Amino acid sequence: MAQTEDMQALLDIRNLTVNLLRSGAPVDVLQDVSFSIQAGRVVAVVGESGCGKSITASSIVGLLPPSMQIASGQISFDGEDLVGASERRLRQLRAKSMAMVFQDPMTSLNPLMTIGRQLQEAAIMAFGCSTEKADEIALSMLQKVGIPDAVSRLQEYPHSLSGGMRQRVMIAMALCRKPKLLIADEPTTALDVTIQLQILRLLADLQAELSLTILIITHNLGVVAELADDVVVMYAGKVVESGGVDEILKTPKHPYTRALLAATPRFAIGQPPERIAFKEIKGTVPELGKRGPGCRFEARCPASEPGCAASAPETVRITASHIVACRSREMLQ
Amino acid sequence: MIGQTHWLHRFRRRGPAVLAAVILALLAIIAIFGPAVYGTDPWSMVAAPFLEPLEESEYLLGTDALGRDVAAGLIYGARLSLLIGLAASCAAMMIGVLLGAVAGYYRGAADDFLMRCTETFQTIPSFIFLLVLVAIAGPSTVTIVIAIALVSWPPIARLTRAEFLSLREREYVQACILSGMGDMRIIFLQILPNAITPVVVMASILVANAILSEAALSFLGLGDPNQITWGTMIGVGRESLRTAPYLCVLPGIAIFITVLAINLLGDGINDVLNPRSSS
Prior knowledge:
Helix content of chain A is 32%, strand content 22%.
């Protein structure tokens, strides 16, 4: 699919299928997910809750819960396949080149250790350096993420920091390890709206400064517009559309992407709240195990056709980067 | 007031727990320094038998059927009862925490195996099991400590496992795994400190149970024959229960106070360490 791109991708996911093992037949949580991330770019994975965004991230870092298993497909990172790699090699790779920022800053720091100690540990784990050197890295990273009075913050415990500050610490901790790939799993969801913007700006600034490669998982299209270069839209465990940020936000082709965009409230000053125009998407994501062979959005799709429920749609390439999985020709015009 | 949330303040508001701590501190002092200060050997026959308490000023708590000093027995008994209680619950905690941590952290096959073992232990009535162990190994202080530990670790293991199962899903643990930290470091340095609070509270109750178990063993004549404990004294006093009830009652009261104090202290520790349970 991506043969047209000559540069080798940092992360390349091919036909990834993840199964949930439960009594009876295993059910797929992800089916045939494919996308790739070029070094230095920010890729956003969007979709509503339960569509498999976080599972995709967990598969990449190898932290799937024991009830889930990669059934088929490849995840190659820097030219190396992660699916077949040994536990040991995986551990090394993760330690050296990936870092993750989690959704809830309340539970992502150890409550019984000082910020400084945790940052120091992260640096030591990554570089095997001395504690003095690690403290130095910790301090410089804490300053880099815009924490005022960083020296005294090092001595504090997570509970004395606000959510936004903790998320900054998490980002500092991730950066301490100079990762090749930074995965941010809904990094702003648990924060106040004003803080969300600050964190996004911070990520954007750091990305520009350090030319980070970021995989950001979100259901917030504002985040996408603010930060992403490329977008992958997922629905019920499948990629329905992917492409550059402008292609997805300005010329969305898949009915789901369009519905998602139409469901985003647009506020304007002076407008009474009840007039804010947004359309909900009727219905809910089909349950695991109750997903038919056809297009998974079919039941909620305004443009569904007779054949949609019977067989899965082919992926159609619209431009070099823009790919959509929908059979409705009308939509693709 | 903000100052009120300081742990010392919270502790002070709980009268029973403080009283319990004072009693236990006194008991500990008696157990450590008592024998040296008091001097009288609990085994030697020092006066006429069956002296009632307060009958003679030199032997305030009276003497038993062989004319041995009851007060000396209580003081020496405090040492051994507390020692066995502490040692046995420490050992039980070590076994329980280790197995529970491994089961909860690794889940899967390790968890299944260890939990089935734990359940097997739990299905055997614990006191009968204790009797069998001591009868096989022979009664001595060390074997009694080991036997009590062997029958009392399962609840600790289950509690630790439950804590680990929930904590290992926390994001900071995931972050540690991601950063390439070794399993042992994650278990002992990252998760265990966060999981230990309820385990410590349960272990404090275990101390009380261990003292009771030891007393019951001694009462049945399965205590260490070379050591005097409160249980031994009750067992010996049983024969003259009708004529000299104080021989059973006095060590009984000592056990009662100790066990009650430990339980109250356990509740107090729970309240202090667990801010959610304090109003």
